Amino acid sequence: MTHGMKRSRWPLVVALAALLVGCGDHESEKPSAPPEHITADTPLLRMIQPPAAMQGRIRTEPVAARRVPEIVTAPGEVSLDLKQVAKVTSKIEGQAVRVYAQLGDRVRAGQPLVAIGSLQLDQLVEEYLVAKAQADVAENSFRRSERLRADQIITERRFVEERGRHLETKARYQHIREKLMNMGLTERELTELEQGTHEQSHRYTLTAPIAGTVVAQNIVLGQGVAPGQELFEVVDPSRVWVFANLPIEQARRFKVGDQGTIVPKGAEPLAAPLTYLSPVADEKTRTIRIRFEVANREGRLKPHEYVDVRLSFGGLPTLAVPASVVTMVGNDRGVFVQREQGYAFAPVQTGREGDGWVEILHGVSEGDRVVSDGVFDLKNVLLREHIDSGGEG
C-alpha cells in the first residue's frame, strides 16, 4: 500500500465514525417504523465484547413498569405577596415636621417613619383631656352615690342620674381615646398626655406596619399632608407569589398543595407549593390562573421578573428506564442490552420523561437488562469496531 493510499483511508474512517452504525441502503433516508420489542431472536447490531478490564465497570438493571411523571411547564411572573406589602397613609391633615425613614431603608415593625404636626390632633388631644377629667369626676360621684344609696341617704332617682352621667362621660372619653389610638398613639403616650408629661403631644407619628424595605417615599420635610394620602410603601420580599396560566385540561390535574418548581433565568430552581387555582377560567384565553408561594429569603426572585414554572403528575405504570441509560448512536436513540453473547445496542422509541425516568414505547421488553453504568465505554467499543471494519473495507 502506497503512502497516498494510506492517506486516502482517512475520509472513509471519519465518515464511518460519524455514522457509527453503517451507512445502510438508499431507503434509510425514509422515516423508519418504530422498532419492535427486543427478544432473544431479534437481530440487533453487532454484539459487543468489551475487554475484561471494562467488564468490572459495567452494571445493568432490568426494564420494569414504573410511574413516569409528566412535566407541565408554563411561563410565570413573580409578584409581591400581598400579605407582605403595607401602604402607609395619614388619617389627619397636617404637615411633615420630621421624616425618619428614606427610600431603600430597612425598617422593623413599629419603627417611626414620619411625624406630622396637626391642629386637628391638638384639638383632639384637648378634647381627650377634658373628657378624661369629666369621666373621672362623674365616676367619683357615682361611687359616692352607690355608698349613700346603700345607706338609704339619697333617693333612687338621684342614684340613677349619677349612674347615667357616669356612663355618658365614660363613653365620650373612650370614643376619643380610640380615635387617638387609631392615629397611632400608644397607651404609654396617652398616659403621658393625662399626666401632662408628653412634650410632643401635637405630633402624629406614623410607624411601619411590617418589617421590610421602604420601596416608595412620597413625603419630604415640610410637605403638607391630607387624609388618605399615601406617604410610604413598605414591602417584605422574603416571600413572594409566582403566577402562571394553564390550559383548563391541564389545570384539572392539579390541586392546592401540589409541589411545583420555579425556574428563574440564570438561577437555581426553587421548590414551592401550589396555593391557588382560580375557580373561573379567563374569558379570552380560556386558561386557569394558578399561584405559588415561594420562600425568597435570599432575594433570588425579583418581583415582576419572568420565570418558568413546572408541575408534574403521574400516570399509569409503564415500561421505563433511567434517563441516564438512553444514548444516541448515529441518528438512533437507544440502550445497550445485555445478552448471553455480550452487549448490543437496541434502538428504542421513547415517550414522556420525568423524575429521571424515560418511558419506553418500543424497543425492549419487561425484564430485559439494560446497561446503567458503562454506557460511554460500550459506545467507544462500538465506535472502534465500526472504524476498524470500515477501514478494512
From TrEMBL:
Q: Does the keyword Zinc-finger apply?
A: no
Instruction: Tell me which UniProt keywords the record has, alphabetically.
Output: Transport
Positions of the CzcB-like C-terminal circularly permuted SH3-like domain: 319-379
Q: Which NCBIfam families match?
A: RND_mfp (TIGR01730)
Q: Which InterPro entries match?
A: Beta-barrel_RND_2, BSH_CzcB-like, CzcB_C, MFP_Cation_Efflux, RND_pump_MFP
Would you tell me the protein name for this molecule? Cobalt/zinc/cadmium efflux RND transporter, membrane fusion protein, CzcB family
Q: Which residues form the CusB-like beta-barrel domain?
A: 239-312
Output the Gene Ontology terms for molecular function.
transition metal ion binding; transmembrane transporter activity
Query: Which family does the record claim for this protein?
Result: Belongs to the membrane fusion protein (MFP) (TC 8.A.1) family.
Where does the secretion signal sit in this chain?
A: none
Q: Which Pfam families match?
A: Beta-barrel_RND_2 (PF25954), BSH_CzcB (PF25973), CzcB_C (PF25975)
For whether the record's keyword set contains Transport, the answer is yes
One GO CC term on file: membrane
Residues of the CzcB-like barrel-sandwich hybrid domain:
85-236
Which BP terms in the Gene Ontology apply to this protein? copper ion export; plasma membrane copper ion transport
